């Protein structure tokens, strides 16, 4: 499986990595252990001791988190992957006792991991999702939902939100999206935006119940911005027909996918809204939102992947519908970025000579 390497992937939400925890996850087929050093900064190492290849995540943190001690024979490594302590023999540090260290950064409540060489890490490429992650806590519903499908299927799912009319008809669907014309743009070299607007339909249930009057025609908007390789920002809202957006209800949502492998994906949702900002309203809304993802999206995505098996998506000759315009553009863009990396890494004849 080829992945885009010189880019940031979400590794965890900030509170999945409390001080003192060794968090073992596989990203892009590579076992990684995450932890916080004594200063609280996230660190990421290959989760394989260079001695007899024990998982470092089965060891323990020492020195306030500054080192991780292998649970097998006790070598200790710091967050840069250097061996700092050898309890065996005379205590000399073997030259080869080095672990791969990844560049990691914590930004706005998310921990990001750079999949390329750590020295190439470019912080300017971390998307700014602070508008979501700083939203009111009582208007926030978020969680982690690992799923047995490719990250590309997740991206397809979000970039083609016409599926809400069929997969989530009693909560998020109103029929409006399937009939609306999608407008696709490319805000940058690494992003695709798809927008649906519609007028005259009653808003989906989850929005209708929160408008000033129920069952009335509305103006609705749905905007999805995908940023390579697999993070998506969604704005969805509705207002009574002819009224300004500010008079209606609006939501800002993150859907963050990181490949574990070709057929498994780490997935986080971070949903925020500008209405019902109380603990009671949040407690009431949470089951509906979580069930949409866990009981409707996840089973469908896993069933799709099962039907596809390990076949290449395009080799199955998928039928294309108007709503696919954004997803197809994103797939092509990601492939172009991966191909560009591959050709940059391949020496030309001249360079090889
Ligand atoms: S396997 Fe880690 S110290 Fe031996
Ligand atoms: Fe969905």
UniProtKB/TrEMBL annotation:
A molecular function (GO) term: dioxygenase activity
Source organism, top-level taxon: Bacteria
Residues of the Rieske domain: 9-113
Record flagged with keyword Iron-sulfur: yes
Pfam family, one: Rieske
Record carries keyword Transferase: no
Keywords of this entry: 2Fe-2S, Dioxygenase, Iron, Iron-sulfur, Metal-binding, Oxidoreductase
Name of the protein described by the UniProt record: Aromatic ring-hydroxylating dioxygenase subunit alpha
């Amino acid at each position: 499986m080829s992945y885009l390497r010189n880019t940031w992937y979400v590794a965890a939400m900030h509170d999945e990595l409390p001080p003192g925890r060794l968090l073992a996850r596989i990203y892009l087929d590579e076992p990684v252990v995450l932890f916080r050093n004594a200063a609280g900064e996230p660190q990421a190492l290959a989760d394989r001791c260079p001695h007899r290849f024990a998982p470092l995540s089965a060891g323990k943190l020492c020195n306030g988190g500054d080192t991780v001690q292998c649970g097998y024979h006790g070598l200790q490594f710091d967050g840069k992957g250097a061996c700092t302590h050898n309890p065996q023999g005379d205590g000399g540090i073997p030259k080869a006792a080095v672990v791969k260290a990844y560049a990691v950064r914590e930004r706005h409540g998310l921990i990001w991991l750079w999949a390329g060489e750590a020295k190439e890490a470019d912080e300017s490429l971390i998307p700014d999702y602070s508008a979501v992650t700083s939203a009111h806590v009582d208007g926030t519903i978020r969680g982690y939902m690992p799923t047995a499908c490719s990250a590309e299927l997740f991206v397809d799912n979000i970039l083609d939100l016409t599926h809400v009319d069929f997969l989530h008809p009693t909560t998020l669907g109103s029929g409006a999206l399937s009939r609306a014309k999608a407008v696709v743009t490319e805000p940058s070299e690494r992003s695709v935006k798809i927008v649906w607007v519609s007028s005259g339909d009653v808003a989906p249930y989850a929005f209708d119940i929160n408008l000033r009057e129920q069952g009335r025609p509305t103006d609705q908007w749905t905007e999805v911005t995908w940023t390579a390789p697999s993070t998506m920002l969604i704005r969805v809202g509705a207002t009574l027909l002819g009224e300004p957006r500010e008079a209606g209800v609006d939501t800002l949502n993150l859907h963050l996918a990181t490949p574990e492998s070709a057929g498994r994906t780490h997935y986080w949702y971070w949903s925020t809204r500008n209405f019902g900002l109380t603990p009671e309203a949040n407690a009431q809304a949470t089951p509906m939102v979580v069930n949409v993802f866990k009981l409707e999206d996840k089973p469908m995505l896993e069933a799709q992947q099962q039907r596809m098996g390990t076949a290449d998506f395009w080799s199955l000759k998928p039928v294309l519908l108007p709503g696919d315009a954004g997803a197809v553009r994103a797939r092509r863009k990601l492939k172009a970025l991966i191909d560009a990396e591959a050709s940059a890494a391949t020496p030309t004849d001249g360079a090889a000579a």
